[in-house]
């Protein structure tokens, strides 16, 4: 049988593994930070209507610039942050992963480097690899906050072209404060200039405000967002960014023509019409998240402060054994490879109860 390495693949892909959170068929799946609530029926009906309309014109290419959708996303950002964003500042793609890929195709690439502060979202490094961008793993403190002095030194020495800040950070859960992002931005401009990408995939779940207002007067800052989490639409594949209009223009140089299908645009527009209901689910998930944090602490476990729809908990001598023991009780959580720690997504109250039941049994047996 032919293996990948028998093919003339690029050297940097040899021996690597693809991104792969396990998709196991177990009763309680709390491992990929999905929203547990299916879209409400009135929204499902509206999607059907909008998609039927779009289907009548599927013989034509979709709106290449997704103007109506970008206008809707700009209005959503303005309404929820109080910071005025225009459609010229917004760009959308198939999931924020594609947004990040387009950004690295534009601002990274061969001979260039990106830095991220790990542990963080593993796709930042993988997208760097896929785009031929060098990757540097920057430091964090013991409590998983960014070690600002070390980060500034690393930026000054390495002069990366792209700096990733994930806020709230996956898999640790904590949001980054505005002062830290500003300090990183200043350091990156002094060394670079370089782009600073703030990945706000989980920001709607945060105790802290969005970092979006920092865009004012900072053309090298980008905020990326997604409809996969707060909008409960991971299956839709719709991510977006807000930045200076020049960044949106620059990304046009690498985006594939008509990358965002008419069906995707129609579905995302329907979701935006139901923002109020969907943000209601976010409020429920936030309070469930806080309940699970308190319950885990009540069990004597360490829990990292969470601003997201997931929680990092530990500390375990044998992380994998605990992950397996929880799985044996029908609950799938995530082992992100952070030594001593596991991550669980906030689910419905019943799912969270099942998780807490499993954990309390498992830790008694340790
Ligand atoms: N950023 C972060 C921090 C994430 O955790 C994820 C998904 N797990 C993404 C981006 C990508 O999400 P999507 O492509 O579904 O928008």
From TrEMBL:
Enzyme class of the recorded protein, top EC level: transferase
Assigned EC number: 2.6.1.9
Leader sequence segment: none
Domain spans labelled Aminotransferase class I/classII large: 28-358
Swiss-Prot/TrEMBL catalytic activity: L-histidinol phosphate + 2-oxoglutarate = 3-(imidazol-4-yl)-2-oxopropyl phosphate + L-glutamate
PTM annotation (N6-(pyridoxal phosphate)lysine): residues: 229
Cofactors named for this entry: pyridoxal 5'-phosphate
HAMAP family assigned: HisC_aminotrans_2
PANTHER family: HISTIDINOL-PHOSPHATE AMINOTRANSFERASE, HISTIDINOL-PHOSPHATE AMINOTRANSFERASE-RELATED
Protein name per the record: Histidinol-phosphate aminotransferase
Organism: Kitasatospora cheerisanensis KCTC 2395
Lineage, highest ranks first: Bacteria, Bacillati, Actinomycetota, Actinomycetes, Kitasatosporales
């Amino acid at each position: 049988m032919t293996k990948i390495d028998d093919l003339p693949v690029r050297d940097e892909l040899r021996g690597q593994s693809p991104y792969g959170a396990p998709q196991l068929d177990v009763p309680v799946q709390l491992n990929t930070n999905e929203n547990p609530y299916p879209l409400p029926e009135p929204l499902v009906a509206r999607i059907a209507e909008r998609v039927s309309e779009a289907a009548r014109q599927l013989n034509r290419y979709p709106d290449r610039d997704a103007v109506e959708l970008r206008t809707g996303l700009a209005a959503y950002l303005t309404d929820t942050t109080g910071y005025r964003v225009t459609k010229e500042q917004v760009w959308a793609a198939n999931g924020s992963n594609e947004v990040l890929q387009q950004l690295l195709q534009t601002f990274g690439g061969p001979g260039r480097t990106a830095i991220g502060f790990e542990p963080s979202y593993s796709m930042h490094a993988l997208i760097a690899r896929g785009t031929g961008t060098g990757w540097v793993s920057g430091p964090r403190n013991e409590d998983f906050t960014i070690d600002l002095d070390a980060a500034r030194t690393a930026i000054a020495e390495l002069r990366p072209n792209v700096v990733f800040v994930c806020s709230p950070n996956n898999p640790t859960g904590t949001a980054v404060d505005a002062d830290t992002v500003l300090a990183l931005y200043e350091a990156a401009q002094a060394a670079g200039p370089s782009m600073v990408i703030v990945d706000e995939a989980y920001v709607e779940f945060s105790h802290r405000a969005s970092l979006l207002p920092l865009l004012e007067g900072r053309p090298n800052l980008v905020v990326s967002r997604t409809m996969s989490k707060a909008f409960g639409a991971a299956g839709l594949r719709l991510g977006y960014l807000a930045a200076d209009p020049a960044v949106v223009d620059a990304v046009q140089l690498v985006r594939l023509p008509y990358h965002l299908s008419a069906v995707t645009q129609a579905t995302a527009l329907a979701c935006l019409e139901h923002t109020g209901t969907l943000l209601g689910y976010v409020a429920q998930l936030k309070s469930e998240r806080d309940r699970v944090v308190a319950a885990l602490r009540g069990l004597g476990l360490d829990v990292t402060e969470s601003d997201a729809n997931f929680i990092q908990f530990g500390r375990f001598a044998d992380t994998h054994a605990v992950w397996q023991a929880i799985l044996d009780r029908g609950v799938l959580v995530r082992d992100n490879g952070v030594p001593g720690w596991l991550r669980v997504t906030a689910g419905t109250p019943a799912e969270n109860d099942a998780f807490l039941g499993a954990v309390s049994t498992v830790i008694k047996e340790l």
